[in-house]
Amino acid sequence: MEHILQFAWLIPLLPLLGFLINGLGRKWLSKSVIATIGSGVILASFVFSLILFLDVRAGQTGSGVVHYFDFIRVGNIHIPFDFQVDALSSLFLLIITGVGFLIHVYSASYMHSEPTEHYGRYFAYLNLFVFSMLLLVMGANFVVMFIGWEGVGLCSYLLIGFWFKNNDYNYAARKAFVMNRIGDLGFLLAVFWLFAKVGSVNYSDVFSSLQTLSGTDITIITLLLFVGATGKSAQIPLYTWLPDAMAGPTPVSALIHAATMVTAGIYMIARSNVLFTASPVTQTVITVIGLATALLAASIALRQNDIKKVLAYSTVSQLGYMFIALGTGAYVAAVFHVMTHAFFKALLFLGSGSVIHAMGGEQDIRRMGGLKGKMPITYWTFLIGCIAIAGIPPFSGFFSKDAILLSAFAHEGMFHQVVYYLALGGAMLTAFYMFRLFFTTFHGSFRGTHDQEHHLHESPAAMTIPLVILAILSIVGGWVGIPEIIMEGGERLSHFLAPVIPLSEGHTVSHRTEWMLMGTSTALVLLMIGLAWNRYAKYKEEKETALGKTLGNKWYVDELYDKVIVHPITSLGNWLEEGMERTGIDAIVNNVGRGVQYLSRQIRLVQSGQVGSYVLLMVVSILLFFVYQFFIKK
Amino acid sequence: MIAFLLILVPLIAGTLAFFLRNGQGARGLAMLSSLGTLGVALAAVLTKDAGSLAFSAEWLPMLGAKFSLQADGISRLLTLLTAAAYPLILASTWTHEYKNPNRFFGLLLLTQAGLMGVFLATDALLFYFFWELALVPVYFLCSTWGGERRIPVTFKFFIYTFAGSLLMLVGIIYVYSKTPDSSFAQTSFYQAVLSGGTQSWLFWLFFGAFAIKMPVFPFHTWQPDTYEQAPTAVTMVLSGLMVKMGLFAVIRWLLPLLPIGVNNWAVSASFLSVIGIIYASLIAMRQDDLKRLIAYSSIAHIGLMSLALFAGNETGIQGVVIQMFNHGINIIGLWIVVEWIEQQFGTRRMSELGGIAQQAPALAILFVIVALANIALPLTNGFVGEFLMFNGVFTSTAYDGNYTVMGRWHINASHLSLVFTVLAGIGIILSAVYTLRAIQKVLYGNVGERTGMVKDIRWNEKIALVVIVVVILVLGVYPQPMIEEAKQAVFDLLKETDLSTMIKK
Fold it and tell me: A54: how many CB neighbours lie within 10 A of its CB?
């Protein structure tokens, strides 16, 4: 273990090198060199991650912490720059570099029409993004995590605003950064609180000093951390940046939604599971927010017509499910869903990219239709992604979603029963909106222009191969978490993660109930797919209803934020400048000055009113006196 | 001797510059002198010989004032900043033409000598002398080479800060009268016997002067105008270096001198600082003129530093020391960009700019990195100081006592530290808002009428900006050596400010 851990630093360093080479050499390197370097470093990182992962799996359990240098050491603050490699971080490393690599390969082709300089800039940002995410996951304390945490925020800003000539995109980028910053403040306050109460931010110190913390402290710390998570992982109230983030190139959306960024909040809470379990209040808050976000986003997705918007809201909604899992203490289920979601959401976004590519930039599904025959690989892989997210066995999404629903159901009491039924309802919505999207896009007849129809084509191999690999993963990826009742020796993921996330006791349901739950959810999902087929297999325009309009306009949340938060703040700024600064404070200062001048004129101390020159004369003479004393008199 | 050289080199070079006929020669002399001073400052940081960091000579024996200098860790960092800033300032404004360049550069160097003296003096009268010595040349620089409104703006700046200095002078003389050995020496000042009540009113004499200099809300109104009207090289000196005089003076001449007074007024001073952060940030969000935007952004940053000073603990003050250096470097970077923009397009209004990133990618990248340091992104130098300052404020025990608001809410010390931390934290959100807004309006979007034909930055600006960016990243990734440099000085300071030992005296 020692031996392999020594190379852990290579995993984030390689993408950083890729960033530097492509960033500095973007004017001189050719596109193929840029793409090779950009993807190559991630592949190399993936290989190292795989070696580490296998090593951890082979039973070198426990956590290996590698110390590099002291980042900050002063007073009671000691922050080592350390990495921690264990079951949880090694799993995330695989997801980030694995899915990340496929997205890089896909990008090499997707972005090919960009000028070389911007092509290089794109890959540099992409590598920096992966680097930041790796830092976030590998850090052995909350501050190193925070470095990566803000780093991914920066990279998302740079990539969302990649096409910087378009000011709408720039606004979306800024919105993402600022919303994340709001969450980050929560995270930072939690860090300060930890320093004040525990005196350390190292995971090992914090999680072992639970007894010394009061219940209130734990609740405050976990709530503050959760505020951070709502920003990064797009939960109410800070979720509105994520749907706008699709302004960036489509592979970037895949990266943000699947492999990096939004999974950060889930990772952080899973990492701190000991803390969160100790605070029932926080757990309830997380469950409620997660559920509300899951349902709100799912309802919005029902009426979006932009192919990427539907997927974006589906991400927000799926993240909500992960938070339900975290809130009900099913940390493994949340991590499990992160993994399967990474596969099928990357697949769906890259698939949508393939569609947009073929459609010459068109993103409105009302002007698509009948793409099935023209692009078969995209069609079939997209279908697999839809089935996986809808949750039909044996596709991956089924197992992870089932684990989440089960964890809600297994809790006693009214609250969790309500959570279960609402979450089940959300799952039905998911199946419906995903297949609405699928049928409208791929079935029926083509509704675009002749020109577009003429150009319809399947994407090149660099784009379809990642789709196929992700499709396979979307099918088999869930098998690591097959429940015990289906397969002897199942729940392999729980056992693997046990050193970080203790296996939970209690809260089990009978096998019969478990079978029944799985049967019910599968049947309901199939029913919803049937309904979607019935309604959207042949395209009919959707009727304008009040509810439909509200959903289409995303419940007017952006407008509400504008009115309630943004507008008052800018008005306050204006008032402060006009009312306070100019006519208030500065006027007083000026009047005091004038008053003194006036008085001095009255008492004839200053004849000309030129206070300035007199004062100046005075100062200069004082200075000259001092100089004289020093240099000459001696 | 090293300490004395830090003052002597710019003083002599500055005086010489006045007599040079050749403008370019004066510029060259200024650069040469600045590089020499930088070498001396580096020697001060690297030397192991403590004796060379102190200097003492007779000055005004009948008054008990000595020409004594001492470079402790905090002083060394600030003199290093002052020394490092000058070559950057001169290089980045290398192509700027001035009327009477010999006088311009002479005054600029005299200012540097004054600044060095302020950071090194261990005699209160000497400190006052340098405090004014730094001010006078700046007055001439602004009123001679400034913008259209330079006369009234500089007049106000001068009178305002000079009024503050006079308060301080009164304070110094009063403390002097209470020293055991009738001396202006720092050590005698620290031993002066001052009752709690005396310290309370003395506090405002000193803090008034320092607060105007920093500036802290509501004493800041001279600052945006002055930054706007001063020639950019002078704005860099003002914002990067001179504001540090106020912060440094609090560290050296207020916290250890009047610990009881500080204790009595810590909450009030902190409130002013926090209000200043929010107030300046909100106004910064509404600015169209880049210079004014940076001016208000700087008020917000200074507010945080002032807040952390009054937290009075090791982390907070270490954070301030680190941040004084980093803020100086970063804000000079911002001014270089603004200067370039103004030279290129003849405007600083963001509404008339846009799309520059397409034409000038090198500038865009460097500007973005400096801007990110301005919003304290981790792995930039801005993060380290802010992180420590926030920690200091959050764990501060300086906010004595209990307060009742509107007869209903009871607030104790730990509530206050939380309130201050959260309010200052809102400042870091707002800093992202206005900084990214500026980035977008200047660099992104489509090319405007004015921004069509642009050449990327020239070599001199590029060198300065690249050096700044390297400093930003190196100190952001590995800040510990810098912290070590100031550690002992901060430790000594805290010993002086400790109230429990104070009572024994």
Answer: 13
> How many residues are there in chain A?
634
CA A455, A461, A464, A469: dihedral to nearest 10 degrees?
180
Return the structure tokens found at B223: 């600052």
B479 touches chain A (CB under 8 A): yes
Mutation site, A22, A27, A74, interface B, largest B CB count within 10 A: A74
Q: Which SS3 state, helix, strand or coil, does residue B405 take?
A: strand
Q: Which residue has the tokens 């919505």?
A: A429
Contacts of A153 (CB under 8 A, 6+ apart): A176, A177, A180, A181, A184, A232
Kindly give, in sequence order, each residue whose CB lies less than 8 Å from that of residue A471, ignoring residues fewer than 6 positions away: A347, A380, A381, A384, A385
Angle at the Cα of B287 (from B281 to B290), degrees rounded to 5?
105
Amino acid, res. A314: S
Note which residues in 138-177 of chain B have CB less than 8 A from chain A.
139, 155-156, 158-160, 162
Q: A116: buried, middle or exposed (CB in 10 Å: 19+, 13-18, 0-12)?
A: middle
A-chain residues within 8 Å CB-CB of B483? 72-74
Residue B28 CB contacts under 8 Å (≥ 6 apart), including other chains: none
Average pLDDT over residues A590-617: 67
Among A257, A283, A304, residue whose Cα is nearest residue A548: A304
**Beta bridge pairs of residue B405:** B409
Of B221, B390, B432, which is closest to A188 when you measure between CB atoms?
B390
At B396, give phi and psi (nearest 5°).
Answer: -65, 145
- Token pair for A195: 């320093």
- Token code pair at residue B277: 């952060």
CB A326 within 8 A of CB A267: no
In this predicted complex, what is the ipTM?
0.93
Tell if the CB–CB gap between A77 and B315 is shorter than 8 Å: yes
> Both tokens of residue A459?
């994407």
pLDDT in tens, A1-17: 456 777 889 999 999 99
Burial (CB count <10 Å: 0-12, 13-18, 19+), residue B296: buried
Residue B387, Cβ density class (10 Å: 0-12 exposed, 13-18 middle, ≥19 buried): buried
Residue with tokens 């009727």: A543
B424-453 pLDDT, tens digit each = 999 999 999 999 999 999 999 888 777 777
For A200, A359, A515, A614, B393, the CA distances from B146, given in Å and listed in that order, are 51, 58, 81, 21, 38
Calculate how close chain B gets to A334, using CA atoms only, in Å: 28
- SS3 assignment, position A460: coil
CA dist A462 → A106, A110, A207, A357 (Å) = 6, 9, 45, 13
**Three-state secondary structure of B191-219:** HCCCCHHHHHHHHHHHHHHHHHHCCCCCC
Name the minimum distance, in Å, from the CA of B240 to any CA of chain A.
23
Distance CA A113, CA A159 (A): 17
Cβ separation of A622 and B132 shorter than 8 Å?
Answer: yes
Map A518-530 to HEC letters: HHHHHHHHHHHHH
Centre a 10 Å sphere on the Cβ of residue B337 and count the other Cβ atoms it contains. Answer: 25
Q: Are A470 and A100 in contact (CB under 8 A)?
A: no
Chain A, 178 to 217: residues with Cβ < 8 Å from chain B are 178, 181-182, 185, 188-189, 192-193, 195-196
**Would the pTM of this model clear 0.90, i.e. be above it?**
yes
Q: A30 to chain B nearest CA, in Å?
A: 19
What is the C-alpha to C-alpha distance for residues A142 and A619, in angstroms, rounded to an integer? 53
Q: What's the Cα-to-Cα distance from A22 to each of A28, A30, B39, rounded to whole Å? A: 9, 10, 36
User: Is residue A324 a contact partner of residue A419, using CB atoms and an 8 Å limit?
Assistant: yes
**Residue B301 corresponds to which amino acid?**
H
* Banded model confidence at residue B159, pLDDT cuts 50, 70, 90: confident
